[in-house]
Structure of Fis family transcriptional regulator:
Amino acid sequence: MSPFTKNSEMTSLILDSLPMGVLFCDMDYIIRFVNKAYADLLSRRPEELLGCDITEIIPHSRARVVLRDGRAEMGELCQLGPGNALPVVVNRIPVRDGQGRLAGMVSQAIFNDPEELKKLSSKIDHLGHTLNQYKRRIKASLAPQYSLRSILGESAPMRRLKQQVRSYAQLDAPVLILGATGAGKELFAHALHAESPRAEGPLVSINCAAIPKDLFESELFGYARGAFSGAHQDGKIGQIELADKGTLFLDEIGEMPPEIQAKLLRVLESRSVCRVGSVNARNVDFRLVAATNRNISAMLSAGSFREDLYYRINTFVLEIPPLCERADDILPIARYVLSRMGLEHLAFAPEAEAAMLAFSWPGNVRQLHNAVVHAATMRHGDMIQVDDFPPDTLPSADLPLRAVAAGDLSDIMADTEAVVIRKVLAEQGGNVSRTARTLHIARATLYEKLRKYGISRRGA
């Protein structure tokens, strides 16, 4: 024969066996059930509590509020009696009958052992500390790594460009950065964010040339739970959502597939984004900065870049001049690279300085940086010579050295520039346009230099 003759008897035995306290009161606040663990917390026997008003037993009881509002209160820290100094974590849960009407309240005392509570508190503190660490790391990874100070160069073109950055940064319209490879487009994007009112928000950078075409949509827009086979079960937040309240930097935007261009345009127009596999739009607030080394006009003509997207992203344009058009910045940048290497005591030979000034630097600042690092590593002694540079960077022969003895560096630079122009002009058969393109300078600039050095196109 079963030891349990009634369901209520079985329920009482089960509840009395629990290590946590359980109490039930009806709509009149009368205690109708209390297990031994709960009674122990009140320093009473269960039979002494049955039929009592809970608000009299527990002076600060929240039973009236729970039974009035019908809403549970979970994880509340409280003291159950005037003589009980131990804090207890309590859940207060409204109970409803079969018709959904309130019938009473269950009070559940979860922790009554101070050591257990201390362990839980310590664990929560540790988790909070760990969470804050992750937050700081994420914030640091989404913070700008560069500012205007990071952009080297004080030539007239660079001063004008930096002033543009300061002006554009205060406005929230999109900015399109144009410049050759290695010119520093990423630095300018970071500086725009750092100087803007959004500086405390995230800076999310995406290299459009580095994302596989089949992953572009999910990477940029995110995806919902179960959006496709192999998707993470909880879905994924997209880079656009990550940029909320900050700046989204799309580097090499010219590499973005046409179908993604169309979807990006919709995001910019609606200021909302739908994850892949979802119909729910999420509002997003970000400032767009885009960059490319491609000829956008040619792409528009070829139909590989959407015209409507182009007009949406080019409210402001920053055009970074190539290094060869701001020769005044070459030597300061080279010396800065040495200082960053801890090699401030090194110097460049006059011939090396002249050669650096004469070289076209098609890879711009990045190429100059790498060349100086190479030369500083390969040098012998404290003077960096022309031959210390990579062989495909600076010419080591045919440099005019007649002015070296007199120590006239300006003459060395001028003569070197003249030699290089004559050589390239001859190689191009006297064609000024092709020579200008090869030297990465404007035709007008080349004509000025031809007149300056008395170079004849026919004599080239």
